[in-house]
Amino acid sequence: xxxxxxxxxxxxxxxxxxxxxxxxTLIHIQNMLETAVEHFDKSNFISFKPNKLxxxxxxxxxxxxxxxxxxxxxxxxxxKEESKTAIVIVAMLPREY
Length: 97
Hints:
Blueprint: E1 4-9, H1 11-19, H2 26-39, E2 45-51, E3 54-58, E4 64-68, E5 76-82, E6 86-92
Parallel strand pairs: 1-6
Antiparallel strand pairs: 2-3, 2-5, 3-4, 5-6
């Protein structure tokens, strides 16, 4: 049975997209989502942390899962919730949790 999929971004993420419009775009968010999906088998909480010109991808316990060639302006979290019928993923800033 197929599950309904919903992806959302918070006002903080929208602000970053507006503030850094040419440096941080929806394509970056899409790349982050694809990376998070690769790691959701390890944790329902994936954190992206800026590391100069790359980004560190960590789980909820700060274990480094991957380093990706992507610039982000600040820490961004992706959190997954799943039920029998739906998967919901939200991208947010830590202060919005």
